[in-house]
Amino acid sequence: MDTQVTKKKLGLKERYKLLTRDLGWETTFHTKDEVYPYVKYEGIKINDWDKWEDPFRLTMDAYWKYQAEKERKFYAIIDAHAQNNGHLNLTDARYLTAIKMFLQAISPGEYAASKGFARMGREFGGVGTQVACQMQALDEIRHAQTQIHAISNYNKYYNGFHAFSDSRDRIWYTSVPRSFFDDAMSAGPFEFMIAIGFSFEYVLTNLLFVPFMSGAAFNGDMATVTFGFSAQSDEARHMTLGLECIKFMLEQDPGNLPIVQRWIDKWFWRGMRILSLVGAMMDYMLPKRVMSWKEAFDIYGVENGGALFNDLARYGIKPPKGWDVAAGAIEHMSHQLFLGLYQWSFGTAFHGWIPSDDDMEWLSAKYPTTFDKYYRPRWEHIKKLEAEGTPFKNYGLAKLCQTCQLPTVFTEPGDPTMMCHRETEYKGEKYHFCSDGCQEIFEHEPEKYLQAWLPMPALFSELNGDIGAWMDWVGLKNGVDNGDYVGSQDQINFDKWRGMATSNKQS
Amino acid sequence: MAVTSLKEYIGVPRDTVANFNGKQLVYVSWDHHLLFAAPFLLCIPPQMTFREMVEGPLTALTQPDPDAKNIDWSKVEWMKSNQAWVPNFGASLADNGIGHKDQIRMRTPNLNSLRAAA
Amino acid sequence: MSNVFIALQANEETRPIIEAIVMDNPQAVVKREPAMVKIDAPGRMVIHKETIEGLVGRAFDLQEMHIHLITLSGNVDETDNSLTLTWNN
């Protein structure tokens, strides 16, 4: 290999050109259309693939070098965490609820993204795009692996981690991110890039990883901070790729604008629905909180998203259609979802709990116009039921949205006391939605979404409503993985071990 | 086109009534009673009477709400597919026109204990 | 004018990078959060290789930043000597 030599002689731009663009060739045995059969059917017109700009100009040799260094850093910390009982440095084991949800719902998304980018690296017509997608495919599988590896340290001591791959496929709440990725992966390459490269990476991962990982640090979770920041160090490159792709499409042909705009509208809305899980994590699951979901959204959603859409306005792009509705729901979504997670905690592979008085004080300070007015009365009533010896469980199961697959917990825009009911009929069959945004996505491509495997109906169609059989099937150990945190094995063990770690107490 | 695809594509719905072993799904929600985070999903036979649905699963599921014990079922206002509607308590779900995956809503205008103070 | 930003892990190796950003971008605002440092600047931010090299006392490849980067916002332009973030509004 003579890269050592070329490196000294060539500048970044030339080196990038030689090590990416020159890897391509003109096909002669088959036409371009035969070699790249999926680049046209979505309606996006590309006139010149060479106009693709990869702003980071990272070549494969540099990529391997830096990724290897990230891995060494990562494992140095993970080893130290494992060797020094790092799990006992947590503020409280209830914090692990967020990590269980992360492992079951988000890490498999990384794996799905890897598969998706591997496919797109094959399907895009330009070599710059192909190389960038292949790097991202490698990044994403690294993320899945490092997350699973880091979190496996908690599986040695705590419940709810042991069946995450079955949870991924079978349990109800994981169908939300799974359907997001399935939707993207079954779309064409350009829509995939908007879905994952742009909406997920650029608009959403800041909200997912940054304040959340900072929260992990705040709660003493070195393992998660480490995989989080190690993954996030790749995200800057991914975001840039997503943004470049969108600019590339818009610059290539004016006819691309309406298609791109519709994808932005769609994937922003789908992303906001996933973020309701993140909102619940930030506002309820972190024993010590860095910032509220609303504060995070103000920084990374309103400020950063606003800057981005202002920038794209020169191409004629407007902010996503659901932006105002989403902004109006920011002070409600985390409360609405966590209330659901609590009442259905018999069916979750993580624990739920009633927010403590301190937690509720914090929530009313962070959400001064909504928490006390709408949500505190419900929790006060739930506390009363608990005190009377009849803790609240909602065995009614839930209506799910045909598009995002979340329980339809969200309220009408402008009326937080009224649940949002939306339905449509297609080919004689009824379909229900949590919002106008999800209904519009369905109505644009009904033949895609009518195939959704919705876990709650499936409990009846496939298992005749037998909850015990369902728990076995999803890998949920009743009375161990699920239910209230208070009195759980996780709580008892954590308190006992922590006592042993900080004193000479014999169990 | 009902899906963006290379050629015509027809999807197969996963939750048609034929898959529910003689039963059907019915969604029921209680307006302004958001202690219950989402509408209830019931899987019940179409031959069940409306009264049996109300006195059976619906009464049991709504019990945790402080208003549940004060419901006067003869005064409840009903909606079906978001339209005002009057059920026949003695007739079956089928005869009430309640099909698979229909959404029923109930309203109890003066009974809203946990609703936000205005 | 919209802010561009960059967020870096809070560690020994990013200290001189942050210092260099502050020196080269007088309008930059540094926010220190648990385990990370976020730097905002109105409209534009430039990170110069030369400034960092002056602080660390060795050759520095700007792509080393990939190891410590958490996130950024703005259009990116990278050359051998600088990394620039901009919003066109």
List keywords for this structure.
heterotrimer, B: 118 residues, alpha+beta, Ubiquitin-like (UB roll), five-stranded mixed beta sheet, 1 helix, 21% strand, C: 89 residues, Phenol Hydroxylase P2 Protein, four-stranded antiparallel beta sheet, globular
Tell me the layout of helices and strands:
The complex is a heterotrimer of chains A (507), B (118) and C (89).
Chain A: H1 3-9, H2 12-19, H3 32-35, H4 60-83, H5 96-123, H6 127-155, H7 164-170, H8 175-185, H9 189-218, H10 222-252, H11 257-285, H12 293-312, H13 323-329, H14 333-343, H15 357-366, H16 371-387, E1 411-412, E2 415-419, E3 422-426, E4 429-433, H17 436-444, H18 446-449, H19 455-463, H20 467-474, H21 489-502
Antiparallel strand pairs in A: 1-2, 3-4
Chain B: E1 24-30, E2 40-44, H1 50-62, E3 77-80, E4 83-85, E5 102-107
Chain C: E1 3-9, H1 15-24, E2 29-33, E3 36-42, E4 44-48, H2 49-56, E5 69-73, E6 75-78, E7 82-86
Antiparallel strand pairs in C: 1-3, 1-5, 2-3, 4-7, 6-7
Helix pairs in contact in C: 1-2
Short overview:
The complex is a heterotrimer of chains A (507), B (118) and C (89). Chain B is of the alpha+beta class and 118 residues long.
Q: What is the helical fraction of chain A, as a range of percent?
A: 55-70%
- The overall pLDDT of chain A, averaged over residues, is 92
Intertermini distance of chain A: 59 Å
CATH topology of chain A: Ribonucleotide Reductase, subunit A
* CATH architecture heading of the domain at 26-107 in chain B: Roll
CATH topology of the domain at 26-107 in chain B: Ubiquitin-like (UB roll)
CATH class of the domain at 26-107 in chain B: Alpha Beta
Order of strands, widest sheet of chain A: 1-2
Question: Largest sheet of chain B, described in full?
Answer: 5 strands, mixed
Global outline of chain A:
globular
Helix amount of chain B:
10-25%
Terminal CA distance of chain B reads 46 Å
| Count of the separate structural domains of chain A | 1
CATH architecture of chain A: Orthogonal Bundle
Task: State Rg of chain A.
Answer: 24 Å
Can you identify the CATH class of chain A?
Mainly Alpha
Q: What fraction strand of chain A?
A: under 5%
What is the overall number of helices of chain A? 21
